[in-house]
């Protein structure tokens, strides 16, 4: 899904999240989005039930912030309200 966004939309208008989960596909998609100017947030290890996908994203350096799950909603509101 993130790769599709990267290929079809201006990344500067996208804020993407990587939350708890396994695999690398989200990390690859986030890297493409970041290359297109998107803003990326990944869930912190402390709150992720499974840190696989957030860890893969962090390893690629494809993020702007790492936040605890309890802080993500408030941060999204800040971003949207600009």
TrEMBL record:
Gene Ontology biological-process entries: chemotaxis
The organism's place on the tree of life at top rank: Bacteria
Entry-linked InterPro entries: CheB_C, Sig_transdc_resp-reg_Me-estase
Protein name: protein-glutamate methylesterase
PANTHER family recorded: PROTEIN-GLUTAMATE METHYLESTERASE/PROTEIN-GLUTAMINE GLUTAMINASE (PTHR42872), PROTEIN-GLUTAMATE METHYLESTERASE_PROTEIN-GLUTAMINE GLUTAMINASE (PTHR42872:SF6)
Keyword Repressor: no
Entries under Gene3D superfamilies matching the protein: Methylesterase CheB, C-terminal domain
SUPFAM superfamilies: Methylesterase CheB, C-terminal domain
Catalytic activity annotation: [protein]-L-glutamate 5-O-methyl ester + H2O = L-glutamyl-[protein] + methanol + H(+)
Organism (species): Halanaerobium congolense
Start and end residues of each CheB-type methylesterase domain: 1-82
Keywords assigned: Hydrolase
Pfam families according to UniProt: CheB_methylest
Coiled-coil regions, chain positions: none
UniProt-listed Enzyme Commission number(s): 3.1.1.61
Gene Ontology cellular component list: cytoplasm
Key word Chloroplast present: no
MF annotations from Gene Ontology: phosphorelay response regulator activity; protein-glutamate methylesterase activity
